[in-house]
Design goal:
Structural class: alpha+beta
Number of helices: 2
Shape: elongated
Largest sheet: 3 strands, antiparallel
Radius of gyration: 20 Å
Number of strands: 5
Distance between the termini: 23 Å
Strand order of the largest sheet: 1-5-4
Helix content: 10-25%
Strand content: 5-15%
Amino acid sequence: MDGVSISWKHYDKDHKYSNDQSIEAARAMARAFQMERLGVAPSLVSRHTLGFGIDMTITWNGALILPDAYGRVIKITSLPRTGMNRELHHVGAGYGVIKYNRSGRDDPHWSDTGA
């Protein structure tokens, strides 16, 4: 990508190209950016980069009581008590915030389209 300076070639102490060192450097970068166990491949253009996506971790204890987009008070008592709760997905959709709905798994991702 233009403007991003990443050296994918790494060399040993004798200045010879080292495939092993190159692979280890790429793995180190993936660890540093916490990209080792992504359910979806990263993208240069996404709902995030366009300003229409967010990753958020949601948890609660007991019942979750919140207003829906129509002013009704919704009480969610079903499991799981995380962002993967289908009742929460329905409430979010009323506000135009759609839980990730494509192939693979991307637990924290919400956007305007679900993509």
